[in-house]
Amino acid sequence: MKIxxxxxxxxxxxxxxxxxxxDLVRIMATYYPENKYILYNPKKPSVNRLTLTGEIKVxxxxxxxxxxxxxxxxxxxxxxxxxxxxxxxxxxxxxxLPAGIEKTPVKSVVTIHDLIFKHFxxxxxxxxxxxxxxxxxxxxxxxxxxxxxxxQTKKDIIQLSGIxxxxxxxxxxxxxxxxxxxxxxxxxxxxxEKYHLPQDFLLNVGTIEPRKNALNxxxxxxxxxxxxxxxxxxxxxxxxxxxxxxxxxxxxRIHFLEGxxxxxxxxxxxxxxxxxxxxxxxxxxxxxxxxxxxxxxVITNKKGVFPEAAGPYSYYVEDVRNPEEIKAVIEQVLxxxxxxxxxxxxxxxxxxxxxxxxxxYLEVYKKL
Length: 368
Prior knowledge:
Elements lengths: L1 E5 L1 H5 L3 H16 L4 E5 L15 E4 L4 H5 L1 H15 L4 E4 L14 E6 L3 H4 L6 H17 L2 E4 L2 H11 L6 E3 L14 H10 L7 E4 L8 H7 L7 E4 L4 H12 L6 E4 L4 H10 L2 E4 L8 H8 L4 E4 L4 H5 L4 E3 L5 H13 L3 H10 L5 H14 L1
Parallel strand pairs: 1-2, 1-4, 2-3, 4-5, 5-6, 6-7, 8-9, 8-11, 9-10, 11-12, 12-13
Helix pairs in contact: 2-16, 8-11, 9-10, 9-14
């Protein structure tokens, strides 16, 4: 088979959607190298995190007009290249498909990660919400197959589009191999010293924005001696957290980090006493998976998608907007020995291994 991918996120996004896209291509090329994988990239790469093997080719727009208007090429005129290149299946990796693909011989798959713009409209400009919703509806209606990254996302798609459930397949995400390795004590210590961290700390990973709810972790630790490491891109919300930290004299215990390598981040997961993820809404929650592979106990939201990712042996907060409830669960984990639950959670997370993900996607492609 010849499988084409919308490679915008692969080469221009260093976080969530980019990681998903790169991991999928890497996994497919590793487990099914007999296929050809063509990455359609609209412009010169700004992120180079994918190793290109012999099965993977990159194609950029040709012709003066397409190079001058790469976004238009990606959203419309790319279909000429897909037909010319005899692509069997084209996969839109981030809720988009080019206009008119349903009128070509090329079969199409679209991945829907989440519908945050509908759940939290206040986080988006009105014009952006309209654009995202229009693209979403167009993609799910024109696609031959929809992939949802969780049962929660599948429910959202059906509710917001009316699409029949039989057209949607749930395929969970995995995580990068870096989080499945054990690192030497020497390397771990170097990372701790590089970022001036204590030996013992609690961890939260994700963009520091209101939806991720990190301020309530800080409030929960107000009267605690525990250190908290917050890893992620800062938004205006981060300043709210810093203001609270200063007002309550917590500067020596709350650590903000960003720009870590995957290996450095993996070390923090492995060193953390607890991974705390009280996000209000996610399509799935990759950091939970990363923590479970790292054999670190997880505290997360009891509602929504989170139990799908964290499994039956993690620890849950009923109301993540209540710092007292977060505090109570943290204290519960600290007072008990979570070793047995950590082992069971590690067994649970094997369902997100690369070979299973590859098999699921190959089944979709072959069926089409």
